Amino acid sequence: MTGNLFVVSLRLILVSGKTQDFVFSPNDSATDIAKHVFDNWPLGWEEEQVSSPNILRLIFQGRFLHGNVTLGALKLPPGRTTVMHLVARETLPEPNSHGQRNREKTTESNCCLLL
């Protein structure tokens, strides 16, 4: 696989700040990547080990990647290592939810109430 010109180099970063480099195909999806990382969990990441690949999520440029998104669809720059965050999360936020779902309203909110 390393001799192939059509590979994508990813550097995955955990919340703890630990990193690991991986090589994937442009046809690999976010789900494929999560499964590969789970099956080949790096030495030194033992404290962050998760129980299932189904809760591993990739974040690229501040957005969660949904399972069927391929690396090729992201139009990543060839020949460079792309950095993504890897987090454990049961569900993904709904598109355009802006993180407001399941959030309790408090008096300290920065939002305005329009009547």
From TrEMBL:
Gene3D superfamilies membership: Phosphatidylinositol 3-kinase Catalytic Subunit, Chain A, domain 1
Alphabetical list of Pfam families matching this protein: Rad60-SLD_2 (PF13881)
Ranges for domain Ubiquitin-like: 8-86
SUPFAM superfamilies: Ubiquitin-like
Signal peptide stretch: 1-17
UniProt membrane topology term: Lipid-anchor
Annotated keywords: Cell membrane, Lipoprotein, Membrane, Methylation, Prenylation, Signal
GO cellular component: plasma membrane
UniProt cross-references to CDD domains, sorted A to Z: Ubl_UBL3
Record's subcellular location: Cell membrane
Domain of life per record: Eukaryota
The keyword Plastid is assigned to this record: no
PANTHER family xrefs: UBIQUITIN-LIKE PROTEIN (PTHR13169:SF2), UBIQUITIN-LIKE PROTEIN 3 HCG-1 PROTEIN (PTHR13169)
Protein name stated in the entry: Ubiquitin-like protein
